[in-house]
C-alpha cells in the first residue's frame, strides 16, 4: 500500500449538491486546493476526475457527476489529510441543508481507497455508468476490497458514485473541462461573461473545444443556469488549449477560482451494445434491429418507432428538441437501424428507449406492388401463394405476372445522427468530436498548473 513512506490514495465523492444549490465539482475543487495549499508534499497523480454516470437513474443528482482525486500522500500525513477532507465535505453540505439530508435529496458518499484500483471497482464503474446498482451490489464490492477502503460518512447512496468514480481508470477516450467558480457574493446575480468574447473564443479554439455556443438560438452553451456556483465550463481535448481559451474570455465578475478536470464527457461511454432480449428500465446501451411498421408521431412532435430482432421488440422515442425525431420520422418498415440511449418505463408501453444517437445501417430502396390488370389497368389481388392473380374490377385472372418494382425516394441516408448541440447531454459525443477523438493517454504535464 505504501512505497518509501508514501501511500496512493483515491478519494471518491458524490451527491453533495441538492436540486437547488451546490456542485460536487465545486467541493472537490475546494478539497484539492486546500490539500495543495496545506500539504506541499502531496502529489496529484492525475487531473481531478469528473465522471458522469447513468443518466436514467431516477435519484441521480442534477448532472449525475461523481468525482475522484488520485494522490500520492506521505503516510505520516494521511490521517491529517483524511480529517481535512471529511471536514470540508461536512462544512459544504451543512451550508445548504439541515441535518435531515435525505429530505433534500442529499445522501453524500465519501470514500478513501488505498493502493491500486482493483477489478471490482472497475466493474462498479461500468455498471454505475450503464445500469442500476443495488446497495447489495455495493456492499459486495466494499467487501471484496479487503479493508482497502474507508467510508467515513457511512453506507450512503452517494457511495455508489464515489466508488464508481474511483473505478473509472484507463478510460479508452476522455475529454477535459475547465470549470470556473463564482465568488459566493455573486450566486444570486446574473452571470457576467461577455457574449462576443465567447463567440471569438469558439472561432479560435473550435478545433480543440466543443459545445461553446448555439448559433441557431444565439445563446452561449458554456454558462449554466440557476444559482449553482459554476460560472462557466469550457470542454475540449487538451488542457493547455482550454487554459488559453479561458484566458481569451472577458469575464466581468469576481471569481473564486478554476480547475481543469479529466472527464468521460462527450465520449458515448454509456453506449454499450445490448440485444433486444436484454432490455430493462434504467439501462443504457445500443440496440440493433429492423423497423417494424410506420413511425408514430406523439403529442408535441416526439416520434416513436418499434424495432424487432427475431422475436424481441423495443419501442424507441426521439424527442423533438434533439432533432432526431426527424430521422425516426423518415424511417419505414424494413429499415435496419441501431438506436442508442437510456431505457425508461412508460405506462402502456413498457420499457422505452430514449434515443440520443441513431445509426441508419440499411434502408429499403424499393417497394413492390401487385401487378396491374392487362385488360383494365386496375391493381390485381393475389389468389394465394403460387395461385396467381385476379382483378377485383373486371375479374381477369393470370398466373404468370410479376409484382411491379418501384424505386423509392428516401429522405434519410445511411449514417450516424446525433442531437443538435443544444440538446447534447453530458455523455453524448457531439458531432464535432466524430473523427477527432483519441485514446485517453497520460499527459506529461504538471497537474498543479491547472488549478487556481
UniProtKB/TrEMBL annotation:
<dbReference type="Pfam" id="PF08489">
    <property type="entry name" value="TiaS_FLD"/>
</dbReference>
<keyword id="KW-0963">Cytoplasm</keyword>
<dbReference type="GO" id="GO:0005737">
    <property type="term" value="C:cytoplasm"/>
</dbReference>
<feature type="domain" description="TiaS C-terminal zinc ribbon">
    <location>
        <begin position="370"/>
        <end position="411"/>
    </location>
</feature>
<comment type="similarity">
    <text>Belongs to the TiaS family.</text>
</comment>
<keyword id="KW-0819">tRNA processing</keyword>
<dbReference type="GO" id="GO:0016879">
    <property type="term" value="F:ligase activity, forming carbon-nitrogen bonds"/>
</dbReference>
<keyword id="KW-0067">ATP-binding</keyword>
<dbReference type="GO" id="GO:0005524">
    <property type="term" value="F:ATP binding"/>
</dbReference>
<dbReference type="Pfam" id="PF22641">
    <property type="entry name" value="TiaS_TCKD"/>
</dbReference>
<dbReference type="InterPro" id="IPR053870">
    <property type="entry name" value="TiaS-like_TCKD"/>
</dbReference>
<keyword id="KW-0547">Nucleotide-binding</keyword>
<feature type="domain" description="TiaS-like TCKD">
    <location>
        <begin position="11"/>
        <end position="72"/>
    </location>
</feature>
<comment type="function">
    <text>ATP-dependent agmatine transferase that catalyzes the formation of 2-agmatinylcytidine (agm2C) at the wobble position (C34) of tRNA(Ile2), converting the codon specificity from AUG to AUA.</text>
</comment>
<dbReference type="InterPro" id="IPR013696">
    <property type="entry name" value="TiaS_FLD"/>
</dbReference>
<dbReference type="InterPro" id="IPR055394">
    <property type="entry name" value="Zn_ribbon_TiaS"/>
</dbReference>
<keyword id="KW-0436">Ligase</keyword>
<dbReference type="Pfam" id="PF23783">
    <property type="entry name" value="Zn_ribbon_TiaS"/>
</dbReference>
<dbReference type="InterPro" id="IPR024913">
    <property type="entry name" value="tRNA_Ile2__agm2C_synt"/>
</dbReference>
<protein>
    <recommendedName>
        <fullName>tRNA(Ile2) 2-agmatinylcytidine synthetase TiaS</fullName>
        <ecNumber>6.3.4.22</ecNumber>
    </recommendedName>
</protein>
<dbReference type="GO" id="GO:0002101">
    <property type="term" value="P:tRNA wobble cytosine modification"/>
</dbReference>
<feature type="domain" description="TiaS FLD">
    <location>
        <begin position="157"/>
        <end position="270"/>
    </location>
</feature>
